[in-house]
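[stage:ingest] chain + small molecule (zinc ion)
[stage:ingest] validated
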Amino acid sequence: MFLTSPRLRAVLLAATSAGLIAAAVPAPEPLGIGDPLFPHLGNPGYDVLAYDIALTYGGDNRKALDALTTIDARTTGRLERVNLDFAHGTVESVTVDGRPADFAGVEEDLVVELGRPVDAGTRISIAVTHTSDPAADAEGGWVRTSDGLAMANQADAAHRVFPCNDHPADKARFTFRVTAPKDLVAVANGHAVDHVVTGSTATWTYRGAHPMATELAQVSIGRSAVVRRTGPHGLPLRDVVPVADRERMEPWLRKTPGHLRWMEDRVGRYPFETYGVLVADATTGFELETQTLSLFERGLFTRTDLPEWYIESIMVHELAHHWFGNSVTPRAWSDLWINEGHATWYEALYAQETGQAPLERRMRDAYAASDQWRAAGGPPAAPHPSAPGDKSGLFRPVVYDGSALVLYALRQEIGAAAFDELQRRWVTEYAHATAGTADFVRLASDTAGRDLTGFLRGWLYGEKTPPMPGHPDWRGKAPSNGKPA
Ligand SMILES: [Zn+2]
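[stage:predict] done
[stage:export] tokens:
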């Protein structure tokens, strides 16, 4: 071929490449990173480094907040578009590196066109102007309280609050900037870095010192008192409670330094820059280990039918998650047993030491029920997906006491000294990182000085619970047709 002029050549090239794009670029579609339990959660091709999330709250928790979420990411593959997870808000505009970008909502993904192919290893900044709607809270995300809002994103609801790569395998730094009427108080994960009053509103800025999974984000807005004290080694503690409950909550709040010392004696230094209890006047039916500021229902502390040691053991459960689940985050949601098994383990140990709840009895009872739990929910490290619409369905007995039972079996098998060393090594070697079941098996084997793959396979993946080392007399109840027990 002979081209007669550069101009014609340019025209021909443009025509060719336009044709190629039209033929080669498929319609936007929802993507995921292949989590066995949440196939559309997370997205391939990039790693989020930082989120900067600005939220403007007008004072009515039934109305959508205005928001600007800025995502700094590094591409890990060649990309022409970026899938974010996002639902329950309206997207007004998107920019990429400051330039307006096309976007489309497809199921629970927000697909952003980069405008040009971007090579792996490129830093990109995506800014999404959107709303965030707490009225659609039935599926998690925003929790409406009597005086404002709190957040509960676990497992897959962060993207119902802000656009994100909504999977714990992609941890990132977070900054929250919350603007609200100045007579309210806004608190988020990490330390306060700024507080500016402008007329009738105020803007609070918080930043976390460590990477965080999207499921652990927390923003509390309400008529709150912020209560400060000091924990072990000068750790700043910060509790957030309804103003009217300040005195009533104090007997519970002042227990935290002791809980911290108790956990540190067992697994080592607390891994974050601050800790505290967020008491929300809402009926959630759960407590949640949101990073540096665990969410508790007010009702847990005001009911009178529970012994004190039991309520404290739940406080210890959420605190223990800061080592197991928050600092060391799961690679896939099927690794949830590591989070909940360990949190339940320390909850049960604390209950044994402070209440009339021997660990061995609790584990014997768990052993009796374990086959039924496995039949109903799957084995600890391969749980069945939850039914559509059943958002907390993953949080079932097999990942709590059924998984603490796996740890008990491991301790019986390798001895208390090796088990304690494994606990400390796990939270040290994977601190502020992501780790999964295979990593745990490998570290357990390394710590015990022998291959535990075969031993743990049955405990983690077996349909039937293996015999308990040291307790040959323990028996399980037969599953009842696989129906939940
Ligand atoms: Zn838990």
